[in-house]
Design brief:
By secondary structure, the chain is of the alpha/beta class. It is about 55% helix and about 5% strand.
Length: about 550
């Protein structure tokens, strides 16, 4: 710890400015519960701790009477600390997954933790005056952490406290102030510091974690967002760390993302009755609920074996909140992207289990996200490229699942993935290599069809291709290569006369059908790429029927 931070810590530990809190912290130490009988309590204000060069600052509320007030370290000694430090360890910010008291070997890397109120309050409720008397410590501590670029506020009171402190530090806080919510995100420009992002999460209290309001996967996603923000420019150019330290931090960040991305969805917080009632009310977000948190849970409904929940609730809820109403914040949209991309892989290769529906509807969920980015851009270039890679890979890897299954619903994997590609094809972030990737993925899928498409998959694929032709930077070369290969396949199919390979016939016919749909769509365009349209029509005219 730097000398100024150490001096501030000593000042915090000696504070007796709030009589109510002094009395409570000392009474709690004098009358401990039976499980802590005989332990020596800290019974003083609890200072912040962590890496003095931290770029992530985690802001809590106050120590617990028998947690930090006992152990001398905020968030240590109770279930909230168990939850927090395990998550920080998974994300690469801590060297161990647990902590029992100060001096137990826990070390934070690139992270610092503090509470705006340093003494344990009765009923865990500090008064406004107690917040005010303690706030100068927070202001000074932030000033002594010059590399902080992301603040993670645990709960609404921490969010409000962080906004006020950032304002005192020179940030221009908008009015009305950014609203708190799980996954909420506010970017502020702080004088002499630059851009700082404030992230929100439900508090890691037992009340939230035991009820499922806050799950490990939800919190991991918030930390993954923090990692992403730091990796994408949130760090300070003047950070005084050596190459080895920066390398260790980078490795920790990569490891954390690898751990977070494949996270398995948590059990739903709300039951079927809740969701059906929500659908009946046209998906109006109930008071006290967050659209982002509900959307993450609705994403899990997409893998439900119940078609009413999957088709009629999960899909409809996401379409309403994400695309129609724009209620889901970018941080939650990113978490949804990661979760749904994992859903594309779950049970891949199976076709007789419910995982097939989960994969198919993960694709349609990603289509909603891709469409929302066209309406209000939120995908970074990296996230866009990742989504494109995942979608094209899934189109080529999925078994030939299509159509409607009575009693079970749609297992429309090809069509749903075609919808993702349709929206990605319209996106300005798509380059020439991405255009080629989409054309190649569609051509490959058509070549590997088991039977000719009959449920409209070829039409949906044609719509994705049409979106490419509408681009100002449309590149016809990938199409020309495909048409040349198709001509060769056609020649090979018919050269033996009466001996026709059924698989080759289906492959040829599936491709031809999709391209005929594309030609028909182009014929209705007001300003089609005329040279390409003639090339396409000429190639189709040469294919033997």
């Amino acid at each position: 710890m730097t000398r100024p931070l150490a001096a501030l810590t000593r000042e915090v530990e000696a504070c007796r400015a709030c009589p109510r809190l002094v009395t409570w912290r000392e009474e709690s130490a004098a009358k401990p519960p039976r499980r802590f009988a005989g332990e020596a309590y800290w019974a003083r204000p609890v200072p912040g701790f962590g890496d003095p060069a931290a770029r992530l600052l985690v802001v809590g509320l106050a120590p617990a009477a028998h947690g930090g007030n006992r152990t001398g370290r905020v968030f240590t000694g109770d279930s909230s600390g168990d939850f927090l430090f395990a998550a920080l360890h998974r994300a690469g910010f801590a060297n161990q997954p647990d902590s029992v008291r100060r001096g137990d070997g826990l070390a934070l890397a690139d992270a610092y933790v503090l509470a705006p109120v340093r003494c344990a309050p009765p009923d865990n409720r500090p008064t406004p005056d107690e917040f005010d008397r303690c706030r100068p410590f927070f202001v000074r501590e932030l000033a002594l952490l010059p590399n902080v670029r992301v603040l993670l506020a645990l709960g609404g009171l921490a969010w409000a406290s962080a906004l006020r402190v950032l304002g005192e530090a020179g940030a221009s806080v908008p009015r009305p102030a950014p609203a708190f919510g799980h996954g909420a995100e506010a970017r502020l420009d702080v004088r002499n510091r630059g851009p700082v992002t404030l992230l929100g999460s439900y508090h890691v209290s037992r009340q939230n974690t035991n009820t499922g309001r806050l799950t490990p996967a939800m919190f991991d996603s918030v930390l993954a967002r923090a990692r992403y923000l730091l990796a994408s420019g949130g760090g300070s150019e003047t950070e005084k760390t050596d190459g080895r330290t920066r390398g260790m931090r980078l490795a920790a960040g990569i490891l954390s993302l690898l751990l977070v991305l494949p996270a398995v969805a948590e059990p739903p917080v709300h039951d079927r009755t809740f969701w059906m009632a929500l659908a009946a009310k046209e998906f109006a977000v109930p008071e006290g609920e967050s659209a982002g948190a509900l959307a993450l849970e609705a994403a899990d409904l997409l893998s439900s074996p119940d078609p009413a929940l999957r088709d009629g609730v999960g899909y409809e809820a996401l379409a309403r909140w994400i695309y129609a109403d724009g209620l889901v914040l970018p941080a939650d949209l990113e978490r949804l992207r990661l979760r749904l991309q994992v859903g594309l892989k779950r049970g891949l290769g199976e076709n007789a289990t419910d995982t097939a529906y989960g994969r198919s509807f993960s694709a349609i969920g990603l289509a909603i996200l891709a469409a929302a980015d066209l309406k209000a851009p939120w995908l970074t270039q990296e996230a866009f490229d990742n989504l494109l890679a995942a979608s094209t890979a899934y189109l080529g890897s999925e078994r030939d699942l299509r159509g409607f299954v009575p009693g079970s619903g749609w297992v429309h994997a090809t069509a749903h993935t075609a919808d993702v590609l349709k929206f990605l094809s319209r996106n300005p972030k798509l380059g020439a290599a991405g255009q080629a990737r989409i054309v190649e993925a569609v051509a490959s899928r058509l070549r590997t069809a088991g039977v000719v498409f009959t449920w409209g998959e070829d039409e949906r694929l044609a719509l994705a291709l049409l979106s490419l032709t509408r681009r100002k930077d449309f590149d016809p070369k990938p199409f020309e290569s495909w048409l040349a290969a198709l001509a060769a396949e056609n020649t090979a199919l018919w050269k033996n006369g009466a001996v026709i390979d059924p698989k080759a016939f289906v492959a040829l016919r599936a491709q031809k059908q999709a391209l005929v749909h594309l030609a028909a769509l182009l014929a209705r365009e007001e300003a089609p790429p005329e040279a390409f349209r003639k090339t396409l029509n000429g190639a189709l005219g040469k294919l033997a029927g």
